[in-house]
Amino acid sequence: MTHQVLHPAGWVPAKGYANGIAARGTQVFVGGQIGWNAQQQFETDDFIAQTRQTLQNVMAVLKEAGAGPEHMVRMTWYVIDRDEYNARLKELGAVYREVIGKHFPAMTCVAVAALMEARAKVEIEVTAVVP
């Protein structure tokens, strides 16, 4: 096996993420993706719709490396509104499963004051390992 989920004994199970992953193979680093389309234009200011587009952008970059969601080992989210993120977790989960499926890498989510693109509500970077 090239990916191993790391879950210390006695810890409460992680929901929607892994505490850690050990992996071996070719590393793929996806720079921060945001919720604009391939022409770098925002089609919406809705947080959930931007998240869907952001995840689709991540998948497009991974595909260029011959990778898919199953190869992701680390994902970092940057959101500008912590309260909206928490209030819309159910919708976020649905969009995540729609685009990514049921693969949950080690994740970090950070609330930030702003992102470099003024209309961006979320930015996601990913590390993947392809066997």
Question: How does this structure look, described?
Answer:
This protein is of the alpha+beta class and about 130 residues long. The chain has helices spanning about 45-65, 80-85, 90-100; strands spanning about 5, 20-25, 25-35, 70-80, 105-110, 120-130. A four-stranded mixed beta sheet has the order 3-6-4-5. Strands 1-2 form a two-stranded antiparallel ribbon. Helix 1 runs parallel beside helix 3. The longest helix is centred in the middle third of the chain and has 18 residues, at about 45-65. The radius of gyration is 15 Å and the shape is globular. The relative contact order is 0.28. The mean pLDDT is about 95.
In short, what is this structure?
The protein has 131 residues and is of the alpha+beta class.
Question: How far do the termini sit from each other?
Answer: 9 Å
Name the beta content range.
Answer: 25-35%
Oligomer: single chain
The main β sheet shows up as:
4 strands, mixed
Class of secondary structure makeup: alpha+beta
- The largest beta-sheet arranges its strands as 3-6-4-5
Task: Provide the gyration radius in Å.
Answer: 15 Å
Helix content class = 25-40%
**Care to count the β-strands?**
6
Global shape: globular
Which ranges are low-confidence, i.e. pLDDT below 50, for 5 or more consecutive residues?
A: none
Arithmetic mean pLDDT: 96
The H/E string reads EEEHEHHEE
Q: How many helix segments?
A: 3
